[in-house]
Amino acid sequence: MCGCEWDDATGITDGFWKHGYDGEDFLVFDLKSTRWISPSPQGVSAAQKWNDIKHLDYFTNNYLTEQCPAWLKEYVSYGRSTLERTVAPEVSLLQKDPSSPVVCHVTGFFPRAVTVTWQKNGEDHYDDVEPGNTVPNVDGTFQTTSRLTVKDWQTEDYTCVVQHKSLEKDIVKRVIEEEIRRNQDIETRGPSMGVIIGCVVGVLLFVLAVVGVMVWKKRGAGYGKTNTSDTGTVNSATGSVNSDTGSVNSDTGSVNSDEPLVKA
Predict the structure, then answer these.
(1) Are 129 and 147 in contact (CB under 8 A)?
(2) Which has the higher per-residue pLDDT, 227 or 217?
(3) Residue 207 DSSP SS3
(4) Of the candidates 131, 91, 132, which has an alpha carbon nearest to the alpha carbon of residue 109?
(5) Where does the chain hold its CATH 3.30.500.10 domain(s)?
(6) Cis upstream peptide for 111 (omega within 30°)
(7) In what order do the strands lie in the sheet with 35-37?
């Protein structure tokens, strides 16, 4: 493993170059002495051989103190707009029911560092406080919680204080009924039943309209012009129908055809 560090406030740089074996450091480059050393007895002879290689110590030292920090500074400048952006947190007081602990929920903030504390009557309060872990959100911001377990929050003045880099002044939430959100107070964020019913009715009407048009077109297709081809003729005087395939004689009421077309 090799890499470098850079403190943009002080300008101090540092670096490391290590080789491991079987899960432990085997050879390590010491920047102060610019020589390879071995934390284990088995690597001492290897370290001596590497120190005897001409210019290897110079190359390693130059990489860790010059090249690597230069690249690091360049890459940081590329991502500065993202790395140095600030997003203010949203703070809510949550409670499952009136007898449950009060949770100070802080979310949507960036960067990660945040301070959440409790105060009682204007003084810092640490008893019955359970801080939560800071975890990432799907959008790249972070969230955290702090739980206060007390029974006298309705008679004493408790506040949740949030400090963050993005804030000009601290966010202070008082533990009062008007600020607390409980399960039964949170409205369902999905569409209302009226909207759902309206959508269903609209879809059904659309389907019925499509079916009606198809039925109308199908019925209209049954009425066409009479076939007046040479394969059959109608004699109005004799009431007979003569064709190459069959004939009807109105006088005798007989049907003559090798293959009758219609049988009624």
Answers:
(1) yes
(2) 217
(3) helix
(4) 91
(5) 2-83
(6) yes
(7) 2-6, 13-21, 24-30, 35-37
The pair of three-digit structure tokens given for residue 127, joined into one six-digit string = 């008893």
CATH fold of 90-185: Immunoglobulin-like (2.60.40)
Q: How does the average pLDDT of the chain come out, rounded?
A: 81
Per-residue pLDDT at 189 exceeds 50: no
Contact 44, 38 (CB under 8 A): yes
Structure-block tokens of residue 214:
């198809």
Distance of CA 114 to the CA centre of its chain: 23
CA–CA separation, 118 vs 160, rounded Å? 5
Q: Using alpha carbons only, give the angle 120, 123, 124 rounded to the nearest 5 degrees.
A: 85
CATH 3.40.50.2000, domain 2-83, yes or no: no
The one-letter amino acid code at 260 reads P
Rounded Cα distance between 210 and 201, Å, is: 14
